[in-house]
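Sequence design from tokenized structure. All designs in this work follow the same two-part layout: the structure record, then the generated sequence. An example of the structure record is given first.
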């Protein structure tokens, strides 16, 4: 059993002993701690308001009841927006002038996981400082429940995904009419979660696209591994070419990451979601770009070509958002398909990513995605992971890697990033969301990438014990 506290909240596997996994006890403790944090953060209010949403996981509808009861028992009013997306909860917090919000989801993790993503009053994930305060409150169990006459009220709001989309369509760089004129034919993989609701609504109702749906019934029994990466998306890649679609779209279960499939069934690449959308934004606005140490060099190359400054941060949405605010970036995100467009909200959002991407390719006369990708630097990237046992620590492994590569240029802000000549690099770090080591390797040469991959995997595993 696993329980992970990270920069986006908590998540874990279901079942087992208290404190070892994601159980009803953890839900009550962390949601109560969240309310205590919120009341300390936003003091001297008569009543507090929280927005609550959930993804399509089979356990999310059950666990939602624990959250509603806990929040009401703490004297907090709850707006339940039901089956939703993580970015929709962020939008609803702003729209309802709420004090915060919680999304029941374990994001890209498999179906035996669930979790809580927690927001502040700006519809953004809690900062590192605020998370530390929250986790301390939970550890000490500093909870104060309400008396019988001070219990919170419950409200249900329908159609918040529609409201979210309508706000996206009001953005100047989203052109609904040019998308409609393009008459796109698009295959959508909704991974049996809320992407199966939200993405077809956006494409069919607002953009007039013809949509071929795959796994769009949100029953939560994921048909494949839910992380939107190439090896998990073989069926949609095949489907796009079979039905002669213009492209394919796949999202993760809580719809904050989006990837695209080319018209011939090739994978466009999760790294190139942010690269291509940044290309469009920088054609229309001048400003800096922010992504993470694990993201492709292709984004830095694009920034240099556009004459803007590129910044790298530690992996995680809160780190990217913090830097974007600091440097007033016009676009940012992560190489996993996460787009952060500050004109909408400081948070990853697959729906705004889709709207901006379709506007861009429509303005390029419906350019095929195979042709669009040729506009950008071509790198070969490997993304590997090694599972740690509960007692294993990554520190010793990183220290040994540091010794092996001591003659190379290194960045130690987030694990170890080793820079080589010719724009080659390796990044090794502990995952924020699972008990694993993540290893990223990139090179302009496939042969060199394969060589570096074999070398680093050997060196890590040699020091594994």
């Amino acid at each position: 059993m696993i329980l992970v506290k990270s920069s986006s909240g908590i998540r874990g596997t279901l079942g087992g002993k208290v404190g070892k996994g994601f159980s009803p006890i953890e839900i009550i403790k962390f949601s109560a701690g969240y309310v205590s944090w919120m009341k300390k953060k936003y003091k001297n209010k008569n009543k507090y308001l929280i927005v609550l949403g959930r993804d399509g996981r089979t356990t999310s509808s059950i666990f939602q009841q624990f959250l509603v009861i806990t929040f009401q028992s703490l004297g907090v009013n709850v707006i339940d927006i039901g089956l939703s997306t993580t970015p929709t909860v962020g939008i609803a917090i702003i729209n309802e002038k709420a004090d915060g919000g919680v999304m029941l989801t374990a994001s890209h993790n498999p179906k035996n996981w669930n979790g809580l993503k927690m927001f502040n009053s700006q519809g953004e994930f809690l900062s590192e400082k605020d998370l530390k305060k929250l986790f301390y409150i939970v550890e000490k169990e500093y909870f104060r429940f309400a008396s019988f006459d001070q219990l919170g009220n419950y409200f249900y709001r329908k159609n918040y995904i529609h409201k979210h989309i309508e706000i996206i369509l009001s953005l100047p760089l989203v052109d609904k009419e040019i998308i409609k004129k393009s008459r796109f034919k698009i295959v959508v993989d909704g991974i049996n979660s809320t992407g199966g609701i939200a993405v077809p609504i956006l494409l069919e109702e607002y953009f007039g696209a013809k949509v071929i749906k795959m796994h769009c019934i949100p029953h939560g029994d994921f048909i494949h591994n839910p992380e939107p990466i190439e090896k998990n998306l073989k069926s949609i890649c095949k489907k796009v070419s079979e039905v002669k679609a213009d492209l394919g779209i796949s999202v993760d279960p809580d719809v904050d990451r989006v990837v695209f499939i080319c018209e011939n069934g090739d994978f466009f690449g999760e790294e190139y979601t942010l690269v291509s959308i940044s290309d469009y934004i920088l054609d229309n606005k001048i400003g800096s770009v922010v992504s993470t140490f694990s993201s492709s060099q292709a984004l830095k190359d694009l920034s240099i070509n556009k004459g803007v400054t590129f910044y790298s941060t530690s992996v995680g949405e809160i780190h990217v958002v913090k830097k974007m605010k600091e440097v007033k970036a016009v676009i940012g995100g992560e190489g996993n398909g996460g787009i952060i467009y500050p004109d909408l909200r400081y948070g990853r959002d697959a729906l705004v990513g889709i709207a901006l991407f379709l506007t861009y390719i429509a303005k390029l006369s419906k350019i095929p995605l195979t042709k669009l990708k040729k506009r950008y630097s071509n790198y070969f990237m490997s993304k590997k992971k090694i599972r740690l046992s509960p007692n294993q620590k990554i520190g010793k492994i990183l220290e040994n890697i540091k010794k092996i590569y001591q003659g190379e240029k290194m960045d130690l802000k987030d694990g170890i990033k080793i820079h080589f000549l010719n724009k080659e690099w390796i990044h090794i770090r502990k995952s924020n969301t699972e008990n694993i080591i993540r290893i990223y390797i990139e090179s302009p040469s496939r042969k060199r990438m394969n060589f570096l991959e074999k070398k680093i995997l050997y060196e890590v595993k040699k020091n594994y014990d």
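The longest strand covers residues 76-83. We note this feature because it recurs in several other targets discussed in the main text.
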